[in-house]
Design a protein that fits this description.
The structure holds 2 protein chains of 2 kinds.
Chain A lengths: L1 H39 L2 H20 L6 H24 L2 H7 L2 H6 L5 H34 L16 H28 L3 H29 L4 H8 L3 H18 L8 H21 L4
Helix pairs in contact in A: 1-6, 2-3, 2-6, 3-6, 3-7, 3-10, 4-7, 6-7, 6-11, 7-8, 7-10, 7-11, 8-9, 10-11
Chain B lengths: L4 E12 L2 E12 L3 E5 L6 H9 L6 E5 L9 E4 L11 H10 L7 H7 L15 H12 L6 E5 L7 H16 L3 E5 L3 H7 L2 E6 L2 E6 L2 H6 L1 H7 L5 E3 L3
Parallel strand pairs in B: 3-7, 3-8, 5-6, 6-7, 9-10
Antiparallel strand pairs in B: 1-2, 1-4, 8-9
Helix pairs in contact in B: 2-3, 4-5
Classes of the chains: A mainly alpha, B alpha/beta.
């Protein structure tokens, strides 16, 4: 009897866990759709994407689009280190905070979905919005490079055969990956902050100094010859911005210019961006109710 | 916990730092009743409701909530419920409903609280009262056995206050327990089945002679007798 009861309880627990996973998955998808709709209905975010697109286009126009796809990437990669975080933070820094202040999270807390499904759904929906935003913002630059037909600069003349829109597509994918890591940090900020002003302060006091210090540290290590090249490459992977830069240099420019310059360790840089993304989401989940 | 009781708390004590907000509080809430919790600001009403909803764990004491097999358990409407303005009323309810069950049917819930006519209106365009009714619809998704409403009528005009309380009363009549914190004594007199007066984390008055008990509200708090009066409580 005891064995039969135990088996029944075990089956009941398994069924409960399956129901719970199904509920979480359903809720995460519903939340992702809600976030996408929310972005679609927020004119300020449309304006921001348009502004970022205009800025990218201006940089591409003035510094490289006429020379081809890879020179355009060179022209855009540094502005992207500033513009994409702006987009990522704008998409994420208030979303969980506002839901907490508006009581939506308290209501959800009495319902079956887990905190992880709330954060996962938010990240999925806002992540898709960010990917679309990055693609839309970079599309005019791609068009410019295509229309210019790549007349070829002195620097890239020898590698003109390697210049390709596929390299630009790779740049878009890497920029999206970078944006997702920033979005994830923004969601964590949104979960930690208790008001919009403190979210902005957290970005200014924590995120910017961390990113800048890691960047300057790797540059100082490089110029001061404090560490060997391997250590510098590893140090570069610490900050999302420098990891992104390393990935672009290695996998886009490196592909066009050949293996003559070692600008980073792609696997390490990709792992860094992934770690920032996962870490941000884990922090957001852990602090959602506090 | 008896079958006709949706919530049972015994000897609840809760503190924020050195401040005791609930002190040895015991309370049962019956199915079919709209139980009003009244008391001055800082009496512990919101904390009691958050404990009842499972959003806070008391420092001491026990809480028995509804069996999850009877609906999803507890529905909660927080004091400041301001859902996202860019969504329609129906979209908002459907989102919360999807968290409980597949195939949400927002119309049924909106009809129950009298908002079916504004299902396609954006939340940002609703009046404060309609927003509270929307909150009531959201709190009742998944057919919970216990509804916990934290000051759902604060700042509302008398007409909207009446609508919110009538909707809460109808939900109670449908076989739920409704626990509502409020300062609105006229609505309590009109619609509550039972009134519980809290002061400094303790139950001072608990009874079903709602009209008389509500009238004693201010004098009881001011007198600060420190005694608990129970009149006709189950």
């Amino acid at each position: 009897m005891t064995g039969a009861k135990s088996a029944d309880e075990s089956r009941s627990h398994e069924a409960g866990a399956r129901r719970s996973r199904a509920t979480d998955a359903r809720h995460a998808l519903a939340r992702a759709r809600r976030e996408l709709r929310s972005v679609r209905r927020t004119p300020a975010l449309h304006a921001l994407i348009a502004g970022v697109a205009a800025a990218f286009t201006a940089f591409a126009w003035t510094a490289g689009a006429s020379d081809g796809y890879v020179p355009t990437v060179v022209a855009l990669s540094t502005p992207a280190e500033v513009l994409v975080p702006v987009l990522g933070f704008a998409l994420g820094y208030r979303v969980l905070l506002d839901d907490r202040r508006g009581g939506e999270l308290a209501v959800l807390d009495t319902l079956p979905p887990s905190d992880a499904s709330v954060v996962a759904g938010t990240a999925l929906g806002r992540g898709v919005a960010l990917a679309v935003g990055v693609a839309v913002a970079l599309a005019p630059s791609l068009l410019l490079a295509w229309l210019a037909g790549g007349s070829g600069s002195a620097l890239y003349a020898a590698q003109r055969g390697a210049d390709s829109p596929l390299l630009f597509a790779r740049f878009v994918a890497l920029t999206t990956l970078f944006g997702l890591s920033v979005l994830s940090v923004a969601l964590a900020t949104s979960a930690v902050a208790d008001r919009p002003r403190s979210a902005v302060a957290l970005v200014a006091v924590v995120w910017v100094p961390v990113a800048v210090a890691a960047d300057l540290g790797s540059l100082a290590a490089l110029s001061g010859a404090v560490f060997g090249p391997d250590a510098v490459v590893a140090l570069q992977a610490v900050s999302p911005a420098s990891a992104y830069r390393g990935l672009v240099l290695e996998t886009v420019l490196g592909a066009a210019t050949g293996p003559s310059v070692r600008a980073g360790a792609p696997a390490l840089d990709a792992a860094s961006l992934l770690a920032w993304t996962v870490g941000g989401l884990a922090l957001a989940t852990g602090r959602l109710r506090e | 916990m008896p079958r006709d009781t949706a919530l049972s708390t015994s000897n609840l004590t809760h503190r924020y730092g050195d401040l005791t907000v609930l002190a040895d509080l015991s309370l049962d809430v019956a199915v079919g009743d709209l139980t009003a919790v009244v008391g001055p600001n800082g009496a512990g009403k919101s904390t009691l409701l958050r404990v009842a909803a499972g959003l806070e764990t008391p420092a001491e004491g026990e809480v028995a909530r509804p069996d999850p097999d009877r609906g999803h358990g507890v529905g909660y409407l927080p004091q400041a419920f301001t859902p996202r303005a860019e969504f329609t009323v129906a979209e908002t309810v459907a989102y919360f409903e999807a968290a409980v069950e597949a195939g949400p049917d927002p119309e049924r819930l909106l009809d129950r609280v009298g908002l079916a006519g504004v299902a396609d209106r954006q939340v940002g365009a609703l009046s404060g009262g309609m927003r509270r009714l929307l909150g009531l619809a959201v709190a009742s998704v998944g057919d919970p056995a216990l509804l916990v409403l934290d000051e759902p009528t604060s700042g509302l005009d008398p007409t909207m206050t009446r609508r919110v309380f009538e909707a809460g009363s109808a939900l109670a009549d449908d076989g739920r327990a409704v626990l509502v914190a409020t300062h609105d004594l006229r609505a309590v007199e009109r619609d509550a089945d039972r009134v519980v007066l809290l002061d400094r984390g303790r139950v001072r008055v608990d009874g079903r002679d709602v009209e008389r008990l509500a009238a004693r509200y201010e004098s009881t708090v001011e007198a600060d007798s420190g005694t608990t009066v129970r009149e006709g409580a189950r």
